[in-house]
Structure formats: C-alpha cells, structure tokens
Amino acid sequence: MLKNAILQAAAQSADSVRRHRGHLHRHPEPSFSETRTGAYVSEALTAIGIKHSTGWCADRGAAGIVAHLHGAESGTRHLALRADMDALPIQEVDRPHASTVPGWMHACGHDAHTACLLGAAEVLNSTREHWQGTIQLVFQPGEETLPGGASLMVAEGALATDAPETGPRSTGSNTVDGIIGQHVYPQLDAGTVGFRSGPYMAAADELQIRIVGRGGHAALPQRTVDPVVAAAHVITALQTVVSRSCDPTQPAVLTFGKVSGGHARNVIPDEVVLDGTLRTYDESTAQTLRAAIRRVAESTAAAFGARAEVDLAIGYPPVVNHPALTDRCRRQAEELLGADRVVDLPQRMTGEDFSFYQKVVPGCFYRLGTGGDGPGCRSGLHTAEFDIDEAALETGTAMMAWLAATGSVG
Questions:
Q1: Which pLDDT belongs to residue 251?
Q2: What is the per-residue DSSP string for 222-277?
Q3: Structural domains of the chain, with CATH
Q4: Catalytic amino acids?
Q5: Can you give the pTM of this predicted structure?
Q6: CB neighbours (10 Å) of residue 258?
Q7: Residues of the chain above pLDDT 90, percent
C-alpha cells in the first residue's frame, strides 16, 4: 500500500517538481550565498505545510534549512534526507531554460537535488498515514567550496533530532539514526539508480603552490629567476609523487587544474601560482603524499633559484557508505523500481562533503540516473553543456520518499 501511495503521489507532484527545478536552474547562486534559494525552499515548505527552521550557516551568508515530518503511526525511527543547493562558476550554453545569472549555472545538478527533496517532502506529507517515525529534511548550502556546508551544518547541530524546532546551534543529545543523499549521474539512464556499499568517493584536498622568482625582460633571462620554467618543472616532478611515494594498491590522484602567472609575452613574471587537488581514500596515504608534495615542490623550485610556497588545505573526508543502511536502501530501491533498474557503482575519485554527515551518523549516498537523448543529458558534471532528462525527477522524488519511509540502519 505504501509503495503504490508513494508512486502515485510522486506522479501527482511531477509538475511541481519540474517547476521547482526550472526556477532553481534559472536562478543559481554561489556557495554560501544561497539566500534567494533558501527563501524559495522555505516558501515551498510553508506552502506544503511543513514546519522548518531557517538561518543555518547564516554566519557564512547562506540560508540552510532543516525541516521534519512525523508519520501517523508511532515509532522511534528517525532518518534524514539531504539536498545541496549551490551552483558553479560556469557559463551555461545558450538554451531556453538556461541560467539567467551570467557566469553561474547548476552544472552539478544541485537544482535537481533540491527539487527532488521538495517533491519528496510533498509526497511524504501526503502519505504520512502510511509510514511511521520521523523524517528530517536537510537543505544544505556550500557543497562545492571548503570547508563544505555539510561540516558547518553538522557543527550547528543539523543532525540533532530537535534541529527543526530549535534551529542553528541545536543542543539536543539525540541525533538522527542515519542520513540518505542523492546525486545525479548522467552516465546512468533516467529511471535507474546506483548504489555502492563501503568506500565510494575519495577524500579531496586542495593545494596551491606559489612559485616565487625574480621577474624581468624576456630577452634578458640571465638577469631573472624565471618562475615559469621552475613551475613547469615542479608540475612535471610532482607527476611522480603518486607513482613513487605511495602504495600502488592505494588509489590516489594529483591534478593541477589552474596555472596563473604573467602579464605579457615579453615579460618574465615574479611569480606563478599552481592550483590543484589531491584525492585519496586512505589517511596514511594522504599524509605521505602531502609531505612528498611539499618536499618535491620546494626542492625542485630551489634547483632553479626560485622558492615554492605550498599551501595545502585538508578537504572533505572520503564518502564511506554504511553497509547495513546502504544494503537496505538497495533492496528497497529494487522493490520500488525493479532489480533491472538498480545497478552497482564503481568507486570514484571525486569528492563530496556528504562525508561529514557520515562521520557522525550512518549514511547512504546513491546515484540517480539522469541520462537521456536530449542535448546535454549525457554531458559530464561541471561542464557548460550539462543538463538532465527531467523524467528522472519523478524517479528521484519517489526514491527519496520511499527510502526515507522504509529505510533503517539495522
């Protein structure tokens, strides 16, 4: 009875979920600046009749929200659902429903995550006579930027069972039993979902290396200490750090995605800045690589008479899905969608701040297939072409509601 009720309610809410996603997609906001987004979510929850607290992460300029619903049947089960709300600094390709904010777009699907959670709230509210316990809703800012909105939400007590009433700085001694998160995945067809128990996504550190030399005329290099040449050698030397400093059986990735320096082709600059990321699963491996990066960068720059200043920010922990909760969620997904629409996921070296919740309570982070035949519906995350097959929104809405209403850690 519950399954049919949820599927029917998800179908009935499909149009409103599409409208939510369309509005959020056209009005993206940067990490820790999601004030309009938070206001929109708050208004939508109020319209549904769901009590909630606002002002989460307000010290960082954000507008996180925590809400909850109580089932009609008695029970102590208390699970949380999470959606992130921030966008990325990417200029979207021209299309009818594109972002109206120059240079910003929802290129990671957070608009879909928020829309699906609003849809799940509507579904759960209309089917509450069929499920027991309490379901907490966490609308989180700042997933894309350190220190990660999840870490701040946890610090402010968002996982406390009294958080929806007391708001930020909740002091309740009880926490939710577990938390479930959903993320779009263009490599899976719309209407399918994927799970992986145990380690799933990598820890993500951010690093910046400033190569300081002495600038001058490009035609007189002997009077300079060229940081461009030194930076080139530092990048090359660091490519051996993973292969020669850590256990080959431990996954690790070191990538530099940004190189900044210089103002003119005929001027040697004073400095070059390298920005990169380090991804690992094992803390011991991470510590080894952090030390090696600093050692190799400093010694290589020194060989060219330059100086390397290494700033390494420890980022998100690895996403490790709780086996019991994840296995239960997978079984429930098969019951809702059919076994042929539930797949196993491979490990990834991408990072996610959902891991901060998993440091406190059991968590399951799964993937919602959003791939389709439309433009951009197979494009990768964090690209200007990225889009979703909106048929996935009904699946995502039903899945979140179903897993929350039927999931358990034990």
A1: 94
A2: GGSB-HHHHHHHHHHHHTTHHHHHS-TTS-EEEEEEEEEE-SSTTEE-SEEEEEEE
A3: 2-200+318-406 (3.40.630.10), 203-316 (3.30.70.360)
A4: 86, 143
A5: 0.93
A6: 9
A7: 95
